[in-house]
Amino acid sequence: MSEWPYPCWIAHRGAGTLAPENTLAAFRLGADHGFAMFECDVKLSADGEPFLLHDDELDRTTNGQGAARVQSWDALSRLDAGSWHGRIYAGESLLRLEALSRWLQALGLMVNLELKPAMGEERRTGQVVAQRVAQWWRDSEVKPLLSSFSVEALEAARDAAPALPRALLLDRWQIDGVQQAVQLGCVAMVVHHSFLDARRIDAIHEMGLKALAYTVNELDRAEALWAAGLDGLITDEVETFEPQARLGVNPGRLLDVSALVADLDV
Description:
Helices cover 33% and strands 17% of the residues. The chain is an alpha/beta fold and 266 residues long. It has an eight-stranded parallel beta barrel with strand order 1-2-4-5-6-7-8-9, surrounded by six helices. Helix 6 links the parallel strand 6 and strand 7. The termini are far apart.
């Protein structure tokens, strides 16, 4: 990419933990807190519909049970994906990626789509999601960033829509991780924050990639990563980091949150 188009603040699964994750209610709340970019999880229904869900199983975040991959979108769309989080979200449904694409583009917001394939569905998920993203965001100047822990899913996404930007996800530092990301044609790496420091961020930058971290919820840790040269930060704490996100503050300035809040009150 000739120019990095994404905001540095990224809200995890819509609004972190403040609303039922990966639902439209969560994205609306995240936007209300000033975030212009979101991270979310995408997988496929049995009939190939891309939709948002983190887990392979439905039990934790819906009133359904068992593996999501074996159910059609029609069946999945009838589930309650909000009551587990609180009564005010009762009836909130699972979210189709197509519906999210329309909402984001209408507001000029951006997204990091994590390819979250069920076991054995890696290539199919990467291919289908990339094809649909290329179609649904065809008129958007800034395309979604596709990321995954699955090399196979990233390879399939690359083959299906090579122009879409991709990022390799790592839950721990790997010696050959940077080289692997380059070989996959990625533009970035998204690494668990506990494995990042200035030296490793520099190693990522030296290969022409951007460095992003997940999931950072402590102010001190965020400031240390910005000082180390981090390019993007995924967080649950949309309230804690709201002032920076809302004002578009350059994190390199390491401004104090209380000062930012005071600025908002003026």
